[in-house]
Amino acid sequence: MKILLINSNTTEHMTKTVTANAQKVASSDTQIVGMTAKHGPATVEGHVDALIAASATVELIAQHEADFDAFIIACGVDPGLFPARELTSKPVVGIGESAMLMACSLAYRFAILTPQQRLVEVLRHQVHQYGLISRLTAIYPVALSVAAVAQDQNAAIPAFLEAAQRAIAEGAGAIMLGGASSSGMDKALQLQLGVPILDGTACAVLMAESLVRLGLGTANRGAFAPPEPNKRTVGIPAAYQRWYDLN
Amino acid sequence: MKILLINSNTTEHMTKTVTANAQKVASSDTQIVGMTAKHGPATVEGHVDALIAASATVELIAQHEADFDAFIIACGVDPGLFPARELTSKPVVGIGESAMLMACSLAYRFAILTPQQRLVEVLRHQVHQYGLISRLTAIYPVALSVAAVAQDQNAAIPAFLEAAQRAIAEGAGAIMLGGASSSGMDKALQLQLGVPILDGTACAVLMAESLVRLGLGTANRGAFAPPEPNKRTVGIPAAYQRWYDLN
Amino acid sequence: MKILLINSNTTEHMTKTVTANAQKVASSDTQIVGMTAKHGPATVEGHVDALIAASATVELIAQHEADFDAFIIACGVDPGLFPARELTSKPVVGIGESAMLMACSLAYRFAILTPQQRLVEVLRHQVHQYGLISRLTAIYPVALSVAAVAQDQNAAIPAFLEAAQRAIAEGAGAIMLGGASSSGMDKALQLQLGVPILDGTACAVLMAESLVRLGLGTANRGAFAPPEPNKRTVGIPAAYQRWYDLN
Amino acid sequence: MKILLINSNTTEHMTKTVTANAQKVASSDTQIVGMTAKHGPATVEGHVDALIAASATVELIAQHEADFDAFIIACGVDPGLFPARELTSKPVVGIGESAMLMACSLAYRFAILTPQQRLVEVLRHQVHQYGLISRLTAIYPVALSVAAVAQDQNAAIPAFLEAAQRAIAEGAGAIMLGGASSSGMDKALQLQLGVPILDGTACAVLMAESLVRLGLGTANRGAFAPPEPNKRTVGIPAAYQRWYDLN
Amino acid sequence: MKILLINSNTTEHMTKTVTANAQKVASSDTQIVGMTAKHGPATVEGHVDALIAASATVELIAQHEADFDAFIIACGVDPGLFPARELTSKPVVGIGESAMLMACSLAYRFAILTPQQRLVEVLRHQVHQYGLISRLTAIYPVALSVAAVAQDQNAAIPAFLEAAQRAIAEGAGAIMLGGASSSGMDKALQLQLGVPILDGTACAVLMAESLVRLGLGTANRGAFAPPEPNKRTVGIPAAYQRWYDLN
Amino acid sequence: MKILLINSNTTEHMTKTVTANAQKVASSDTQIVGMTAKHGPATVEGHVDALIAASATVELIAQHEADFDAFIIACGVDPGLFPARELTSKPVVGIGESAMLMACSLAYRFAILTPQQRLVEVLRHQVHQYGLISRLTAIYPVALSVAAVAQDQNAAIPAFLEAAQRAIAEGAGAIMLGGASSSGMDKALQLQLGVPILDGTACAVLMAESLVRLGLGTANRGAFAPPEPNKRTVGIPAAYQRWYDLN
What we know:
The structure is a homohexamer of 247-residue chains.
Chain A: E1 2-7, H1 12-25, E2 31-36, E3 40-41, H2 47-64, E4 70-73, H3 81-86, E5 92-94, H4 95-103, E6 110-114, H5 120-129, E7 136-141, H6 146-151, H7 153-169, E8 174-177, H8 186-193, E9 197-199, H9 200-213, E10 233-234, H10 241-244
Parallel strand pairs in A: 1-2, 1-4, 4-5, 6-7, 6-8, 8-9
């Protein structure tokens, strides 16, 4: 099985790390190919960031749609998830959505931790959009800068533990790490907290593999039906043209 | 007051019509400047369409942010509405959202009519995203092709009346026209049905004017806080750079 | 355009202030006529208050229905909003509802501040009734008596800023002033907080003007259908009789 | 125990019937005193009707508050229920609310039948307001005029059976009769349908008796806190004055 | 009237107390027969506890279905409530559900107090399951062990008062005691707090009596339809056999 | 990896089929051990069925907790899912929940088909309990007896296609088969319908494998915290004793 993992953030070294992490949890016969968004911000932390990142992400999926069995959008706010699903009948999963869905298999209510105060309301909107608000306790900002977390995850552990302990005291049974900077901290936190800590990338790999192995693909009816073919277009990225220009 | 109206569909003649309609309902001291999305599909009917259109729409808003008092996204699914709001503290309104909010001032529950069966679930997701599901009765597809509606609105009236009458019988107090092709049919339908028929473009003009006149602008905290400045980016459209490259 | 603004509180000087404020934001060709509820409490702060105020408010609307183009209920809990809508096919707006709907155009989630602890749960019920709970963060009581606010708004600013800052820290992107006593404090607060502060009266004027200019009126089907004519009645206020006694 | 039952409809003979029905289901030591609203429409079928009826209803409760142990508002849309609750720490129940709450003890989802098409959306709003939408399947209009039902309940049975059978087929486990005209048809329908049929008046009597016997009264904190005393008022009904003029 | 009250906790002396309390609030012609679950934990505080208790509870109801007019499940999380309802067309009520439904007659939003931190999320799931989340403010753990409460209720009063006062300050109008250990503390708390305190057992007795007196029984359609007869079974408790083995 | 699959229905040959199907989709290094509930009905179709089945299911999980890496409850209504989760920190998944969660990765809204009219409301309650109502379009009964489906799946195809086509026309993007009798029909239906058809057993196997491979286990805080140890119990199944009798 070949899975295309797209880092929607334009940070090459993050792509390498995330792809390696993904390959580590993948089955031995799964090949994870990592690609970095061709344009966009270094890290996605809001709606504009996500829009630019979504374009870059969906273009890559469109371009390589024929060559992979499934697609992973490796960015917490899942940029381009719904549009990408219109372009393929293969599975497309986001690391945000996958972590939330798996959390629902482990706990009645989950919390999200993020080192970015700015993301709290953006993530809440995302949970609402997925219809999962009743499964969320709250979203907790960690009192650290993203940069600080990225530079030294070990030093960041105490701040994450503090936020997580508050989340648990307030009802959460599972905790999702909402930002790429904290990717890889899940095992250390889980060991100390005794509740499941969900890392989105890992969840997405397993969700994608599962869907492929089951012969399940994205719905091409309902909200994710493909674009109408033969529609007049202007200057759309070349990658999309085969969906529009069918004659 | 100067309002930039962006037709997210790449159809020049539609821009002319919509801008003229918008100018007609605007105050005498309001100037509506219409612009057409520089790239994208002729008509927006799904998530990929909307993503491409959102990029084109938000780029135009970013580019002209300083020159206008408010911005209208003239496309029923409001492409780029949330990202655009991060880029300005001036009002940004979508014709879909404005029609829904005004409908809530006129009726307890409203219905949406669309000539595009394909849009039914997309619009439902949009209403859910806005948190307005309890104010919606249902979304009714009109049994006509979009092309047929666009070519001869008069001939389309009976099909719209039929769908509207079903909507009213099933509880709707107001009806929103969900597609650009039906723009301009509101008065004729309203006359025959005796319930308010909401045309999104008209609603958006008045909503934008109202916010400007009240000195109210988009929130720059919460979910619509502006992008973090000085973030490293790759190949983002020039229009966005002044938000990112502040040094 | 002539708009009847009804102060549902029986406080004449408040009517003068509110009408003046309303006229200030109205278009030059709009005439705002202020009237004070003929009976009821000085200020509306609960369900009984609101019931008495609603009777007085709706009677005035009924009595003057033919003479105005739209109606504003100038009281935060919108007394009589739904009944008034049954009596006219012209727009009827409440300052509470208008502020909430406009807030939805500016922020994903809004907060409400009120100097009346007693109103917190009443306002929450109102937001629930309008189906907008998912757009609300919370309702914050300001630690001041209503009288104190009314007597010296400048002295009240610090207490409002404190509550507003807590609201913003907890996710609100826009803030609505929920009580008449704080009307007029919006600009000063907005300047210091950098988030949109919504004053209900101003919002209602613009919403009413917008609906009139668009030829949109209250639904006469669904939940707001007019009373059945020719129904036997006992001692109903004279103002209502033309809806009931049609023969 | 003395319970004041107020028929919010100004129809004396209906008061007699309803009071007799109420007395029939009451405990032997309970005295039901029926009173008819002093003013208002013969039958309550919308928001204006309900507002006028609410005034008359709440005034009667205010006037006789000291003399009874509990209060029943005998009208399906529960006019004045929330305001009345502010005026007393004794139980106040509505026949609509009581039937819904008891239905929740018998079935997971219930339906409402009403001979008044006009009431369908009004009742839906009421269920939403009570937070019980997830327990409702739907509201079914019965294809008969209210007058026809009132005149000959036996002749109306087939139409009710038809609507009820549709309700059951669509998931309802219990059925609530939403209109006063159908009061008394519950036993006949229940016999033929084999599902519980809830008559609001009966439910309200038992709910009121239960609360009294348990020493439970209306909350005087939260949304139903009593009016602020010593507030300046203008021309409010004499009945209310003891709540306002405490000095 | 004969009501079977089942203590789902296997604690004989608790059964005696609860039955006595139930008899105290029951009508003089009602006989409450208390039975203790034949197997299960001493106190029910989670899903496994509840499953074991549900089996024991439903078996007792099945066994004695013919001999009683109604059934009370005397355990806050209502173990076996929905299955029991399939087995009888007589009323089956739970003390948790009854208290919540009655609270809805007294306050717009209620809170729940429990001495068991462990139960907070379990109770929240229960409220969600009943569709009543919008009527709940929050669930407050009382800072005391269950044992401490059970041993000396008087000594526990201050801790309950503290939690209740927080609940009231945060919007609750009524307070429900969520655990059996606090049964009987309602009157003392109510006296000091001035808000209704709901004791589940008392509520359930009155709800059950009410339903019986009204001739209302559990729905045998919808979610609570009886088991399919003549289904092949293996080793099911003898008590159930008459529902399955009809030939 | 060793997974214990429990058929909550006491039908041995079904266990064989389901286990074989499960093994077919499992990884080569996963061993699926099928066990049949020791007591209970042949097929689970309601709350009593589910309660008896839940006891049998949870007992088997408790008994074999130490010997497996994960547990699958192979019955559409997921009997015992929440209690089982309290007894282990290993993953426990239900075929109903797993199919719903995976459907959320493929479509915005899904439908459920069931040959059992009786199950429609039971399944709806289940979806509500999981907080996923906004992702559900509707539940469609297939006009066939369960026996008919079980005996000849090929002959049942047309009836399923008809229900599925209605579901798709009404907005569903993915379809879940809600009953064990239709297990195995997914591929044939998917081929003809062009939308993803989810078979619960297959979904559960992949979900369980995924969680195990990720080192994620059931939350032992929040709603699924383990039972309090050393609690006095009476006659509980031996399987549970090691959770209760820790001394």
